[in-house]
Design brief:
With 752 residues, the protein is α+β, with helices and mostly antiparallel strands. It contains 23 helices and 24 strands.
Length: 752
């Protein structure tokens, strides 16, 4: 009997080894070939694709169109499934891969009808831009046809690969639109419903200008005379809910003049803050064509370098957060048209989704009232490929000209050039309407100027102080702000800290800029820490007081005190605004989109808690701290040592599949890295959110330029490039912008 058990065990082990070997062989066969020669009818002259030790793609071509083919081929080899998800996400077509589980998200996206809009916009593009998209698509599809086996993602989901179309690249850009601007129209709806339920004084009270303003001209918004409005009796004493703040999708960038650098050349820095996952969103690339060499990050799915340098200029972006949407309050007799959207499922069936359309945009009903969304993304000027032309731009002035016409989510462009100039200007789609509103407008207030892109943009060029900074708070003057509105600006603490760091020095080099990108000093939370110390002193035996006193004033990995202060602030806000949050929740809304802006109102209520019957201040603060510590116990451990900020806020980049199948985590995810930053400081970092790249460059000195990315080039787990570069990023190393010695080479010749 024992002999048979041993034989059975050996047979099971052998079978498992065979299965493992077969699976490994299949995965190995799905690796793309990075060396070889070929021909293509889609190019005019020779195109080569080389890769260095990080997997950075180096594309050599005769023209920008041929370079687009090479970039499309490289993107497709390394990131096609990611590209597929981006286009399907924007179009509302994920259910065809993932079934009914994706239906809610698909319905949310179909609200915007972005595939139809992409087709219409593509037909209106300049012929040269249409050609760029066509060549890029041909490169993408040629790479897929060259694959000997589908990649593991398609093997797991059991789906076929749909060819790439030129309009799909526009959908990828639309996916970024949604990432960067969906919070704007979510914010406006929250403010609209607050005004409807609690009145205009409440809405004004909750959206007061902060004391952290740091516009480039030092102008301040006049704070209105606001008294704390009373809550209606029906909205008091609700259960405390956690108000989940919307992620501050944005970035930091800044620049200084040559007078302030050790080299005498102006310098720019940029780190874009986005959701972090495996694979990372950006793709390192260098394009060489005609007399142009441009190096930086590209977005898989689109034929352009998004942030980088061509040695004449260097540029970076932050999300501008000007107002790009209005909700229109519809009358009962408004003309509405019902549209049926057909959503394909993975089993071949089709789900019908009913959508109401108006003259002003798609319609949503909230609290018994119908609203139409007018958003720049719905208009034809939303998209074009002018961004790609930055590759051949040589001066700040030329970059500003492109900024006026570029069809992309509006960004703060900060750019420097080799002639010594530096400047800031909004780049991207801005509606020409002149009366932006934080709450819904009437049909009569709707401006026909919505159908036009704004031609006149504010700008700053060569400022006297030699410094420019943006970090998602207001950059433009207070007067210009009245014209362009507030689309969800950051509180401003992060931007102010950057401004002050720049003002504190007279000389900078690349390392000084990198140090600023990694600045995790907790200046903003200083008064919250002082408040918590005072609160806990009333209980001398508190086990937390010493940790809070010794918090180190930074989002440092070993700081327990920082964690306590951070959770305390959030719990205080949740407690103070519980009644409003509860009322909004009845309409499936939340204060989340404006939580970061509640700072002034919070401090006023702490001074007068009786206005909302919150009890005395000390009991309110102790209740809030008890809530904060309970959340830490529930989410982490009873052991305070597990509350160190580096553990609570550990950087954990996960693959979408590992979230569904945890057994794949060690194989697919990046190594967990202790947290080192937070939200209200230059070093922005949350577990799955933060700096998606770090870029620092001086035109003419690119051999010293920095480009670090938290992830590898390839999405294939057996590729040597799958994790290449992640550890350097996690350890804050200054990875080079320029590619290293090529290790692989593919050459394409034009077919006869």
């Amino acid at each position: 009997m024992l002999m048979w058990i041993k034989r059975l065990a050996i047979a099971v082990i052998v079978l498992l080894l065979l299965v493992t070997a077969v699976l490994y062989a299949i995965l190995y066969l799905s690796l793309p070939s990075l060396d070889g020669r070929g021909q293509s009818q889609s190019i005019d002259k020779v195109v080569t694709i080389k890769r260095d030790a990080l997997g950075q793609a180096i594309v050599d071509a005769h023209s920008m169109a041929d370079a687009a083919y090479g970039l499309g081929f490289a993107h497709s080899q390394d990131r096609f499934f990611q590209m597929d998800l981006l286009r399907r996400n924007a179009a509302g077509e994920l259910s065809a891969l993932f079934g009914e589980a994706a239906l809610p998200l698909d319905k949310k996206m179909r609200f915007h009808q972005l595939r139809q809009r992409s087709k219409r916009i593509y037909a209106q593009l300049k012929p040269a831009q249409q050609q760029l998209l066509q060549r890029y698509s041909q490169g993408v599809n040629d790479a897929q046809q060259a694959q000997s086996l589908k990649t593991f993602e398609y093997l797991l989901v059991g789906a076929d690969i749909e060819p790439w179309q030129p309009v799909d690249s526009l959908l990828v850009i639309y996916s970024m639109y949604l990432d960067l601007q969906a919070g704007t129209f979510a914010r406006d709806m929250v403010l609209e419903r607050i005004e409807q339920q609690f009145g205009s004084p409440m809405r004004q009270f909750l959206t007061q200008p902060s004391s952290y303003q740091s516009a480039l001209d030092n102008s301040e918004l006049l704070a209105p005379e606001v008294t704390i409005p009373l809550l209606p009796a029906s909205a008091q004493h609700a259960q405390i809910r956690e108000i989940i703040p919307s992620l501050e999708v944005g970035s930091n960038n800044w620049a200084v003049s040559g007078e302030l650098t050790t080299s005498g050349q102006p310098m720019v820095a940029d780190d874009m803050h986005l959701g972090l996952a495996v694979p990372i969103i950006w793709y390192r690339a260098q394009l060489n064509f005609a007399d142009t060499q441009v190096t930086g990050v590209s977005l898989p799915g689109a034929p352009a370098i998004v942030v980088g340098s061509n040695n004449h200029i260097a540029w970076g972006f932050t999300n501008a957060y000007v107002d790009t949407s209005d909700w229109v309050r519809l009358s009962d007799d408004a003309d509405l048209v019902e549209v049926q959207e057909s959503i394909a499922l993975d089993d071949g069936s089709v789900h019908q989704y009913r959508l109401l359309m108006s003259d002003y945009g798609p319609v949503r009903e909230v609290g018994g009232q119908r609203y139409a969304l007018s958003w720049v993304g719905h208009y034809d000027y939303a998209l074009n490929l002018d961004l790609a032309e930055l590759a051949t731009t040589k001066t700040v002035t030329e970059a500003f000209q492109l900024a006026n016409t570029a069809g992309m989510p509006v960004q703060n462009l900060v750019v420097v050039d080799a002639q010594g100039q530096l400047g800031w200007q909004p780049m991207g789609a801005i509606a020409a309407r002149t009366q932006p509103s934080d709450t819904a407008i009437t049909e009569q207030q709707f401006e026909q100027a919505w159908f036009s892109n704004e031609p006149q943009r504010p700008r700053v060029m060569n400022p006297k102080q030699g410094r420019i900074w943006t970090a998602n708070a207001r950059v433009m003057s207070a007067q210009q702000h009245q014209r362009f509105g507030d689309g969800g600006y950051a509180l401003g603490a992060r931007q102010q800290q950057i401004r002050d760091r720049l003002a504190a020095r007279e000389q900078f080099d690349e390392q000084a800029f990198l140090d600023l990108q990694l600045d995790n000093e907790a200046r903003f939370l200083g008064k919250w820490q002082a408040l918590l110390v005072t609160t806990l002193q009333s209980e001398p035996n508190s086990p937390y007081l010493e940790a809070v006193r010794n918090w180190r004033r930074c989002a440092c990995t070993d700081s327990i005190g920082y964690t306590l202060v951070r959770y305390f602030r959030s719990a205080v806000m949740d407690t103070v605004f519980a009644d409003i949050e509860s009322a909004l929740a009845q309409e499936s809304l939340s204060l989340g989109p404006i939580k970061r802006n509640l700072e002034p109102a919070t401090w006023q209520l702490l001074a007068q808690p009786q206005r909302w019957q919150l009890g005395d201040k000390q009991s309110l603060l102790m209740r809030s701290f008890a809530l904060a510590t309970q959340r830490l116990r529930d989410n982490f451990s009873d052991d305070m040592q597990q509350w160190q900020w580096g553990k609570v806020n550990a950087l954990a980049l996960k693959h979408p599949f590992s979230k569904q199948i945890p057994l794949l985590s060690s194989w697919l995810d990046m190594p967990i890295t202790p947290g080192f930053g937070d939200s209200f400081m230059p070093a922005v970092q949350r577990p799955e959110f933060g700096a998606s790249q770090r870029f620092i460059a001086q035109p003419g000195r690119l051999e010293h330029a920095i480009l670090a990315i938290p992830g590898g080039q390839s999405a294939h787990p057996l590729s040597s490039f799958y994790r290449a570069g992640y550890q350097q990023f996690a350890e804050h190393q200054a990875t080079s912008l320029l590619p290293g010695e090529p290790l692989h080479r593919i050459e394409f010749r034009a077919a006869d």
